[in-house]
Amino acid sequence: MAKTKRLLLILLVLLGPGSIIYFIAKNVKNHFIELPYLGYEYTLDGNGNKIDSSAYQIPAFQLTRMDGQIIDNSTIAGNFIVLSTIQNNCPKIDECGLSPYLFNEIFFHKLVKNRDNYNNVKVISILTDQDGQPLDSISDELKDEMIDYDKSLWWFTTGETLPFYNFNFYGKKFKDHPADPASGEIGKFAFTNSLILIDDKGFVRAVTGAKSDSDIRNFFDMLKLLKKEEFDRNREQNKK
Length: 240
Known about the structure:
The chain is of the alpha+beta class. It has seven helices and eleven strands. The strands form three sheets. A seven-stranded mixed beta sheet has the order 4-3-7-6-5-10-11. Strands 1-2 form a two-stranded antiparallel ribbon. A two-stranded antiparallel sheet has the order 8-9. Helix 1 (2-15) packs antiparallel against helix 2 (17-27) and helix 4 packs parallel to helix 7. The chain starts with a helix and ends with a helix.
């Protein structure tokens, strides 16, 4: 099992999140593989040697929903969180870090259709400009676009983005990774164009792009892995 996990980590680094799903489907039919924890931070001794480590856990934050309700750590406790940014010019794809159409068709409608299975999954979108700077006022265009979505499952918010994106990722903070215009990403930074998966304890467990159908499909598969992890954990607790 340890060998399998090492191979999964190598695949993640070299090929990206989709490789995990493919590898599991083809080779690990009788075993459950956990998603990795992202954003590890290390404690060093006086000689610079690593003596301890901890995965990134979302620190204290406060967001405000469009209806005025405050969202904080206590609000999301026990829930799996799908996080994105959203811009006032959405759904114009060249001015939006998320593809609302693809996200709804591939991901969100499954949450609505299978509400009993995903009752503790919430989508949070933080209003920003194209460069990820928080905004306080939602446009009429975006209000019209989002009016038909189930707001009990998809929370549109304002507030600071830093607590969610300030984790280590491939040698630097995720918030500082540049956007890739060649892939259709907007603005200066990749986080504006990303989906983040946060588990029910507040740990970051997955990152993908938010605009392509393949990224969003992979992301839903990773959510299913977390739900399987939850199911197995609850089953073991019920045996005690």
